[in-house]
Automatic annotation (TrEMBL):
Domain CoA-binding, residue spans: 16-109
A Pfam family per the record: CoA_binding_2
Protein name: CoA-binding protein
Source organism superkingdom: Bacteria
């Protein structure tokens, strides 16, 4: 089974897009030209609360930023990991420690070992998929 089969379950994707409320975006800064900014804005426009996670801890899209997931004072439903693949595992481990409900690794961010750790810890995992594209394909809320 390839990465697309194991970590792109249509039922999980639909549930995360339709039922989740709070999405933390690891790597979200204030640059509107970055993919993470565009995806966070898109989900925010569709009713999701976004939580920026960035070392600078800036307010982004009107939401308070945090330097790490451990600092977020609310339970996060989905952690979008918008870091290069070599840093994705650390972000996934932080999501596990924070007891997030799921991790979502976007296109070309593939870390199967980290994804398996998240599954083993009880988190839902989506990998190598774009939330915006999936929203259109899967009929998000």
């Amino acid at each position: 089974m390839g990465v697309d089969d194991r970590f792109a379950d249509e039922r999980v994707i639909k549930r995360l897009l339709n039922e989740s409320q709070i999405w933390a975006f690891v790597g979200l800064g204030d640059d509107p030209g970055r993919t993470v900014y565009q995806q966070a804005r898109l989900l925010q426009q569709r009713g999701k609360r976004i939580v920026p996670i960035h070392p600078a801890a800036r307010t982004v899209l009107g939401e308070q930023g945090y330097a790490s997931l451990a600092e977020v004072p609310v339970k996060v439903d989905v952690v979008g990991v918008y870091r290069r693949t070599e840093f994705a595992g650390q972000a996934v481990d932080e999501a596990i420690a924070a007891r997030a409900g799921a991790v979502w690794l976007p296109l070309d961010v593939i870390d199967e070992a980290a994804a398996q750790r998240a599954l083993d810890a009880g988190l839902d995992v989506v990998m190598n998929r774009c939330p915006g594209v999936e929203w259109v394909l899967r009929g998000g809320a």
